[in-house]
Design brief:
By secondary structure, the protein is mostly helical. Helices cover about 75% and strands about 0% of the residues. It has one domain: Na+/H+ antiporter like fold, CATH 1.20.1530. The protein has 18 helices and no strands. The longest helix has about 30 residues, at about 230-260. It is globular, with a radius of gyration of 21 Å. The two termini are about 35 Å apart.
Length: about 425
Amino acid sequence: MQESQALLTNDAAVLGLLAVTLGVIFYTASSDNPHFKKFYRYVPVLLLCYFIPSLYNTFGIVDAEQSRLYFVSSRYLLPATLVLLTLSIDLQGIIRLGPKALIMFATGTVGIIIGGPIAIFVFSFISPDTVGGVGPDAVWRGLTTVAGSWIGGGANQAAMKEVFDVGDDLFSAMIAVDVLIANLWLAVLLFMAAESSKIDARLGADTTALDDLKRRVTEFHEKHARIASMPDIMIIVAVGFGVTGLSHVLADQIAPWIEANAPVLTRFSLSSQFFWLVVIATTGGLMLSFTRARELEGAGASKIATVMLYILIASIGMSMDIGAVLERPGLFGVGLLWIGIHAGLLLVVARMIKAPTFYLAVGSQANVGGAASAPVVASAFHPSLAPVGVLLAVLGYAIGTYGAWLCGQLMRVAAGG
């Protein structure tokens, strides 16, 4: 392994830097200082939690490629977060949200599948070299990995790299396109969340079911809220990491068995250990929501989950290198057009069915962001809505590889391959 040239190479130091960064962001965001209040009126806290760590990577303070923080947080903190966020889920309330959430999710998926080929076709006239290349370095092949990430997640992205034989150098460039464009779109969604009431009023969206779910969850919190004791906190930690441990044990058995005995299911990501880790953790949280464990929400289960989630968010942001834009700017143009098609289709369908902004944002992020950020965007609308993002993101993992494969075949045609 090549020695890192970053200023901080010890992951303990990097974790400390990220923790201090998060602390400063939340301290200033909650300050009564009028300058901070004005700043955070326009700049979402969540966006800073992604963006500032990305500067550390861009300017060589940390080296995201050498750090293990993202791996640790995604494999240990994320599953525990999913368990604790779904612990108090109101399934009946979510079911009453109706079919619009699924329609917007499906629209987001279709937008990614058709957006890639259209972007390649357009750039074949504007800048043919940008979408050219042959063999493993053909740009359309590399873009299949972006499709895998934007429909499912990292596991689906890795699957596309192998399925379409993508060269390593091209794959590195595609990771930069994926992370930067996805985070730019995330910023747009967070802005929409902040202005959702105005947007919904303008579109004439029906938010009755959403308002009812928020009310039910608020009443549950008020009924069970209490000052957390030491036993409460230890039980919350035990439940979160206990189910996480069990999820790892089962995922380590299920994924290899499927790969060995039913390889045809690999294209659906069913041989991915990370897929099963997310599914089992979410299922564990759902099962616990029917037990007395649901009352742990009153002691702050979701607050502890949110702390872990923000550490994950900072580690994700740390992997974004803004300087990568300068290396292959044309590819970012392709990515921007692609995400623009995705967004445009969502806006058209949302207007047609009068879907609330929440459905548009979470339906999109469940595709583009997956389980790591879909619940974050959902909770930006209201903490009670985070489980909706989790459930849709799991659906994205299930269909991600298949959708990306279809997108890849369409991009092959668009590129003349």
